[in-house]
Amino acid sequence: MAHSPWQQRGRGQARDGGTAWSPQLALDRHRLRRLLDAVGAVSADMDTRTVLHRIVEAATDIVAARYGALGVRSESGEVIDLITVGIDDPQAARAAMGLPQGHGLLHTLVDDRQPLRVADVSAHPRAVGFPPGHPVMRTLLGVPLVVRGTVYGDLYLADKLDGTPFDDDDEDLLAALAGAAGVSLANARLYEQLKRATEHFQRRMLPMLPDLSPLEAAARYEPASRLLRLGGDWYDAMVLPDGATCVVVGDVTGHDVEAASLMGQIRNMLRAIALDRCEPPGLVMSRLDQALTRFADPPTATLVLGRIERGRAEGGGYSFGWSNAGHLPPLLVGADGGTRYLAPARHGIPVGIDASVSRFSHEHPLPSGSTLLLFTDGLVERRDQDIDTGLGDLAEQAARLAAAPLEELCDTLISRSRQVFDDDVALLALRTPSGGPPWIRPGA
Fold first, then answer.
1. pTM (2 decimals)?
2. CB atoms within 10 A of CB 282
3. Among 12-16, 69-73, 371-375, where is mean pLDDT lowest?
4. What kind and span of H or E run contains 268?
5. May I ask the CATH class of domain 23-196?
6. Angle formed by the axes of helices 23-42 and 168-205, to 10°?
């Protein structure tokens, strides 16, 4: 039996007790280095699909095989996905051939849970031939991906590039890679389960938007794309006792369970203060600041708090009054596609830092059919670009969607960056009615 590539087993021993150089020893060290590199590559990501591709690519590389594949199995043992390397058009081939079925040579891996090495595929007693469009393969080496008794899939290679059959060293290399790959795949699946649970928890903490008629309203929340963490981003909207519509978007400092909990506390405190006094946004913000700084370790947050009401603007139209606590400015999009960031010179600091710092209220008309966007920084911030570039891109995209339905506008803005976000995103969009007679909310 040939020796494993990471064990010398007495080969190449020098007379003085050291290890003498030999071509075989150099080859063994080279393959060991490739194996370690492959294990590192497989373990470098938590996205399941990426992990699967890296497993197959690493396997074909270290064994120098022409073809590689990984059949992903469900808990019941059914093949639910197939990742391939070496086939010119894997998507077309998969569409033509379908997924491997629960019989034939490959199912031996599932039955035996042991490595499988075949020198002549066509002569094997369990071989059932190749489906139409499948490359004809002569030799096969396969290992199951098993972690704590669970079979996650079957990793198999076919036809070495040099035309030689698979040997013991190839099997040892593939088995070692499969051990590390199985753990990486199990971790990736666990990570995705936790991420889904985290996202579900975060969404449950955000409110359902109430009926704000005649204003239209839509909101979105998207978690950070690559990080498993709870965020402090939130949005809220409600009708105040005086008939005005209160809107808010904010971001609590930090990303963990505590930040999510603090977000809920701050949102509820802000709701209570706004409903109780119906004061200008600057005063409401100041009262929130005073309440937060009474804590021994005050939480901090950036936010925009606003009031939308009818009758204050010229001609009895809508107006937006707001106060900004260290947050990105709201974006106003006119019905004609004109855009403007509402960013007055007097910009407040985040709440929870110093309650003695003055808070300011600002006001701006909301023309008929205009759209107001409040959002957190995850929508416009990217590690590789200045935030002003992100703000400019957002304004351009929103301008093109000025006449689009509000739900479509939100969906497009969220997906404009290929749904990859470095941070959580909260987005709240509101639109004033287009023309028509003045509409007064009952009880206003």
1. 0.59
2. 21
3. 12-16
4. helix 257-277
5. alpha beta
6. 10
**pLDDT range class, residue 31, cuts 50, 70, 90:** low
Alpha carbons 88 and 274: distance in angstroms, whole number = 62
Which regions of 7-149 does DSSP assign to beta strands (E)? Answer: 65-73, 79-85, 116-118, 140-147
Q: How many CB atoms lie within 10 A of CB 399?
A: 15
Segment 147-171, tens digit of pLDDT: 777 777 788 899 999 999 999 888 8
Across the range 87-109, mean pLDDT stands at: 56
Domain with CATH 3.30.450.40 in the chain: 23-196
Closest among 253, 345, 347 to 292, alpha carbons compared: 253
Strands laid side by side in the 233-239 sheet:
233-239, 245-252, 301-310, 318-325, 362-366
Residues of the chain with CATH 3.60.40.10: 206-431
What mean pLDDT comes out for the span 402-421? 82
Give the pairing of strands 216-222 and 233-239. Answer: unpaired
pLDDT digits (tens, 9 = 90+) for 62-80: 888 999 888 877 766 677 7
103 pLDDT above the threshold of 50? yes
Cβ atoms 416, 226 nearer than 8 A: no
Of 283, 259, 279, nearest to 376 (Cα)? 259
Which of 3, 24, 2 is CA-nearest to residue 12?
24
* 329 phi and psi angles, rounded to 5 deg: -70, 150
Thinking of the domain 206-431, which architecture would CATH place it in?
4-Layer Sandwich (3.60)
Instruction: Please report, as a single letter, which amino acid is at residue 340.
Output: R
Which residue bears the tokens 């359902």? 208
Helices and strands of the chain, counted as H and E runs: 9, 15
CA-to-CA separations, 197 to 141, 204, 277, 412, in angstroms, rounded: 38, 11, 37, 25
User: Using CA atoms, how far apart are residues 423 and 319, in angstroms rounded to an integer?
Assistant: 31
249's tokens: 């978007």
DSSP β-ladder status, 79-85 and 65-73: antiparallel
Query: Is the pLDDT reported for residue 235 higher than 80?
Result: yes
Written as six digits, the tokens of 232 are 């402090």
Q: Residues 30, 32, 36, 39: what is their CA dihedral angle, to the nearest 10 degrees?
A: 120
356: CB partners within 8 A, 6+ apart: none
| Rg, Å, the chain Cα set | 31
